From TrEMBL:
Region (Disordered): 1-34
Alphabetically ordered keywords of this record: Calcium, Repeat
Keyword Calcium: yes
Domain of life: Eukaryota
Protein name as it appears in the record: Calmodulin
Length: 189
């Protein structure tokens, strides 16, 4: 007689929660933030076939571009020099992933704690909806963005999005409403 199989629990299964690595815990970053940092780092990481490359490292000259890819660029050349000095104190010309995570985490934390940086991020996102025009976001803008993203969003859902942002009305969404939605969605702390 064949052994009986265990019955699986009925209902939708949850995706496995991402676990924080030791490095993520050390620098107090989420698994998603670490994945973002690793993706940016890997874009600029050297491969053994590259001329004078050190495998799994980036040249110090790429630190700036890598931070830009994370949307966390240094404020000025002085800060960039300090960051490079931190990750390459012996001036060898190369930065390891572990060293880069340390400064990237610092920049991400600073960005999340800086109200001015948050406001700039809200304005950039807002302007994507209005195509750079100084006006309110309309239901037409939501339709356009959904179409550009190849998402089939029913009209009633678009109206609900406007109502959520404006706290009940169907008019346009101003910058303050938009920022409120981003905060409620957890984009900012």
């Amino acid at each position: 007689m064949a052994p009986k199989r265990k019955q699986l629990a009925a209902g939708p299964s949850k995706p496995a929660a991402k676990r924080r690595t030791k490095l993520a815990k050390e620098h107090d970053i989420t698994p998603d933030e670490e994945a973002e940092i690793q993706e940016a780092f890997n874009i600029f990481a050297q491969h053994p076939s590259d001329y004078d490359a050190k495998e799994g490292m980036i040249p110090t000259g790429e630190v700036h571009r890598c931070l830009i890819a994370l949307n966390a660029p240094p404020k000025d050349n002085t800060e960039l020099a300090e960051l490079v000095e931190t990750v390459d104190p012996d001036d060898e010309g190369w930065v390891s992933y572990e060293s880069f995570v340390a400064i990237a985490a610092l920049k991400l934390h600073a960005k999340h704690d800086d109200p001015e940086a948050q406001r700039e991020e809200v304005e950039k996102a807002y302007m994507l909806f209005t195509r750079g025009q100084a006006r309110e976001v309309t239901i037409g803008d939501l339709r356009r963005v959904a179409k550009e993203l190849r998402e089939d969003v029913p009209e009633n859902v678009l109206k609900d999005m406007i109502r959520e942002a404006t706290r009940g009305g169907l008019g346009g969404v101003n910058m303050e409403d938009f920022e409120g939605v981003m905060r409620r969605a957890g984009v900012f702390g």
